[in-house]
Structure formats: C-alpha cells, structure tokens
## 1
Amino acid sequence: MESASELVEFPLLVTPIDTHYRACTIPYRFPSDNPRKPTPIELSWIDLFVKSIPSFKERAASDTSVPDAANKAEKFAQRYADILEDFKKDPESHGGPPDCILLCRLRELILRELGFRDIFKNVKDEENANAITLFEDVVRLNDAIEDESMRLENLVRGVFAGNIFDLGSAQLAEVFSKDGMSFLASYQNLVPRPWVIDDLDTFKMKWGKKSWKKVIIFVDNSGADIILGILPFTRELLRHGSQVVLAANDLPSINDVTYSELIEIISKLKDEEGRLVGVSTSNLLIANSGNDLPVIDLTRVSQELAYLASDADLVILEGMGRGIETNLYAQFKCNSLKIGMVKHPQVAEFLGGRLYDCVFKYNEAS
C-alpha cells in the first residue's frame, strides 16, 4: 500500500545552516557551467541510463499482470529514450538539470503511468525463494567463526556478496539473464582489501568496545542481498543486544525489496518461537521508509521511520543507490556507515576505484 502520510526530513540528518544537504553524491554540473549545455558528466550518466532501457523493456514486456504489455513496454522505451535525448539538447528540460534522482524518478513515472507496478516481481520472488533455502547454512557458517573480529568481517563480506544482485545495472542485468548469480561465487571473488573506501578496521574496534542500542538500516535489493547479506548481519546485531530497524521501500523499484515483501521474507525465516536460527527477533522492527526509488533523498522519509529513528545511535545506508550514489557524504547526528558495491563505471571513476570495488565508510558522530 502506498504511504498516504506526508514525507518528512530524516531526524538524524545534519543540515547546518552553513552547509546544504545534497542527496546526490556526484556533482553533474557546477554553477559556472552553461545551463543550456549538458556537461560531460551529465552526458555520461544519460548514456548509462540509455543502456538500461533494453533490460527494463524486456522485463516490462513479460509482465503478465499488465494487458498489452509488449506494446506498452515499447512505449516506455520510446518515451524514456526521448526524454534522455531531450536532456542532451537542453539540460533544463523535464525538471532538469538531471541527476541520479531525477533520472530514476522519470523512469519510474513512465512505467507507472503505463500500468507497470513491479516489472521485476517474478525475478524477485524466484531469488527470494532460492536465498531463503540457503539462509540457515550461511548463518551457521558465520556462527562457527569463534573470533569475533573475523566473524564480523565475514558478515561484511556477505553483505558485499549479496549486494551484487542488482538489476539496475545494465551490465549485471545481462549477466543475470544469461547465467544467474551465485552468492558463494560473488563472495569468493570480492576484490581484495584495501577497498576504495575501507574503514572496516575502525568499525571492528568500535564493534568490539560496545554494542549500539538502536540501529537503522536502509536496505537495498531482494534475494541474496537482503536474505544472505543484511539479515545475517542484522541477526548478529540482535545477538549483541541492539534493537534493529530495517527500513525498506514503500513502492517497488527495480529489484529493491519493499516493506511488505520484507515482512513476508522474515515471517518465512523465523521459527515457531519467532527466532532467526536461535536468535530472538523481539528487537527487530520493519519500517516503511516512504521511498519509491533505488536512490534516496533523506529530506523525504516516512513519518513512521522518522519517529523510530529519533533515538538511534547508528545509521547504515546499504547499497550503491542509497549509500554511494546518494548520501556518501551525508552527515548524521549519530554514527553512520555507508556500505555497498560499486557497479557503475562512472561511480568507480569518481571514487578512483575499480568496478565492483567495495565501499565501507564509517563516520563517528560529530
């Protein structure tokens, strides 16, 4: 169900008078740039979204819940391609200049106007079912690591391995359609440390000294990401005595897990006593973030999440969209962690890293 309440600013976001919060991490243009001429960075990102059109069109055409899906998918592809071409001629068209939030929002608006509500539903359902069968084995392998520091690093690597399941990346969508994706293979093939941003050792020290009382995690994709990456990590936080709030999207977008889907996933993973492989879920809450995109503007979250987050002492933004392409440099009134895999060459270039590099950015509260 779509949120009816007004969206509000995330209460832990630092927005001092002298610095303006800007959700998008990568500046596409500067005040000195010609407002009528696209910048090289804008053109590069427009081309990235152009390359995503075929995979979205294919998913839409196969959506059996939409009458005449093939023709409507063709209309989506043409309309979105036309808008992207318009941006190349006039960056201020269609509410521009473009950034990653606007480019994502326009794509979703066209899909929804044509009747497409969740074109990745089938693949999400299939990946969720597969990951659920592996959940207990992944958890028990983590539990078998006696050294706490090594166990934490193993859990973090699991988050990265799961996060590669991202159908918003045209390159990864092509790989997935041909070969599927293996969580174990992704885990074994992670780029070696040090990662492009690597604060894991600092985080380990903080982890060993204390447990956080309340943790907010903005989650990302369905399938291996949420079930084999984030939920084992969440379970470890619960074991340490933390209360954990998982904030998921209100509406479907790409293969991101939604609030309602996450409730269903956890209900399937819990045993009769409400535990996740022996760990109580009494301190686990699921919140509707109010978001409907694969990226997020933290000045627009649900009132429910704002209320739950007001006394948190750790905020985690997981995934490239929420924690790297947006909010990488966002400051919070509490400790924060941005964690995700780099899946676009434009992001890798901006960060000075490699494609499929990892970001683990931990900041203490100011």
Note: The chain has 13 helices and nine strands.
## 2
Amino acid sequence: MTRTLTPGDVQRRARLPRRLALLMRPELPSLAQEIIEEVRRSIPEYGRPLKGPYVEALKIGVERALKDFVDRVANPLAPRERHHETYRRLGRFEAQEGRTLDTLQAALRIGAQVAWRRIMKVGPRRRVSPEVMAQLADALFAYIDELAALALEGYMDARPDGEAEEHRRRLLELLLRPLGSSRVLAEAAERARWTIPDEVTAVVAPPGARYVRAALDADVLADLTAAEPFLVVPGRLTRERRRDLLRVLPDGQLVAGLTVPVAGATDSLRWARHALALMEAGVLGDGPVTDCEDHLITLWLLSDQALIDQLARRHLGDMDDLSPRQRGRLLDTLRAWLVSRGSAADIARELDIHPQTVRYRMRQLEGSLGDRLADPDARFAIEAVLRAMRLRERAASTAEPARAEAVK
C-alpha cells in the first residue's frame, strides 16, 4: 500500500456505469469463496480451523467488502458508515490479538488480485469496454487502499496505549450501575464516542462462548471475555441485528433481555441471565436467540423458587399426608379446574377420566383446601404455584435423560 485514501475518495472519481453492479452481483458468492480460499492458502494465520474466530473475521470482511463495492457502483451516494466500521473493527481485532497490520494488508492485496482476475475474465465476455475496465481497475484498487486506511484507524484506536477500549469498558460499567449519575454517564459516552439511545437490550451468552470480536457492531457495548459474556445493544433486536449477533457469537444459545430505557439496562441483563439459567435447566428452549419477552410468566413464576415453596406449603400443605400418586392426581384435577373453571364433564374430557371421578376428586380437594377455593387471592396463589411446579417438572424430565447419558 503506497498511500491511503480517506473514505469518499473513490466516490469523487468518475462514476462507473451503474449497469456494472448488475453484472457483478451474481459473481459475488463464488468470488467471496475464491478469495477466502486463496487467502487461507497463502497466509498461514488464516489457514486455521474453519470455525475459528480468525477465519470468521476473514469471511465477514470479504463478504461485506464485495457487497459494499458493488453497492457503491450502483449508488455512489448511499451511506457507507456501517461497512466502513467493519474494517475499523478488523483493525481493532488485529491490535487486540497483539498482531501487526501486515497480515490483514496482505489479505487485502490478495483479495484485490483475485477480484481483478475475475473482472478480467467476466468483463470481456459481457462486452465491457476497455475504457470502463480501466476505470473499474482504478476504482477497485483505490477501494482497497480505503479499506486499509479504515483498518489502520481501528488498529490505532485499539492499541494497548490507546484509550478507546478503556473508555468503552468504563461506559459499560456505568451503564450497569443501578443508581448512576446521568451526567457522568453522558460524559463517559462522549469519551467513548457512543450515542446514548432511548432504549437498550441486554444479551447474554453461555459461559465460555466462542466469539468473533471483529464482527461486533460499533454501537454495541460488550464484555465477551467475562465469565458470563454479555452485550448491550441499542434499541430492540431487529432481524438484521439478530443475524449480526450470531456472527459475533456463532454458537448461538443467546438470550435477549427486555428492551428497556437506558436506566433499566441492569434489569434487562438480570432477566436475560435468569432466562439463560432456565434455558440451561431445560425449562426454556435453546434456540439461536431466546427472547425474555416471550417468557415473562415463566420468568416471574421462577424468579424466586424459595418463595414458591413457601406459597406451596401455605396453600397446599394440607395435602402432604397423601401419597405422591394421590396428591399428583388431585393436583392435576385442581389445575384443570382452575384453568378452565368448566363442568365435571369438561374436566373429565381434558383429563380423560370419568366425570364421576372428577366430582369425587373435587370433594377431596374441598375437604383438604377448605375455603381457599372460594377465595380469589388464594386461587390466584394456588394457580401460580401449580404453574411453577409444572415448569419444574418439565425441567426435571429434560434433565433426567441428560444425567443418564452422562453416566454412560
């Protein structure tokens, strides 16, 4: 790289015909793969396991660079800041890993060479004039210089003697301080060059989760090396943001807390961690990104299990003398009655038993629970306890096969 360009230098050159974007887009998937393979073959640092963070960073960088270049051919005036930030992040990644920029710059050169070979092959076939081919070459290599300049910005930002990362760590600490000063937070955000949003969403990952720091968006605050890795994302999680988070934490099993005002970031993080614990216990499913918003009742019911036990003793303790089988049948009938408040015939159909059996069990329940079934507050407490017990049973039934497998 003999010189560096500021973002926008490419745009100030003579514009390329926009029809070139239509010719280039179909080539991007195979071209990205060809560049990745050539870089991995030529540079030892990238010749690592396919799921390693170094290779993930390479893949993200190549795909976004190609898309950005073609997008700016199609529309030179469209905003590019997000794509620019990708290469700043790659520069920061190199600094955080304790390397120089030589490897990344070598990868950029190889990418440009492979891309130019493809242009030389496809251009004449698609009747692109020599004048436009020369103009395209100029734009391509100027673009590579631009990417190198952006990577250098990020690299300088994240050097051990730089202050940017320290400012972001300090900001994250303040953001999660329940009674922090808004003035102090605003000053810290200014130093960290972070715009305070109206709302944030905390996202947590399992302990020891693999991460690709270079894929992290600039407006996301994160501590990925913590014992319990977490991120604070501005606003709600859009579909695009979810996809980006899974590039940062490719193993998935992420949990998103509720979207809250900035002052509630601690609550969002606490709920997300609680949901992650329930997911690990088998109470919640383990999809790529689990939303607390979809499980509010479960989070509430299991937020204090000792208190649920106290409620159970207070309202169902009179049934402790029954055998486990008797107690289980009565509780199933009570649960169905509380949920449906239907007739004996309705409950019988739900439980697949005879209506007379339902009447008999309800008389037993009335004898054990007395006036509680007529008290709205007591009924509410009993239903909450029964729902919590059902959630615990689900977790236990999920955990049992896992324990059996572990014993093998």
Note: Strands lie at 199-204, 221-223, 230-234, 254-261, 289-291.
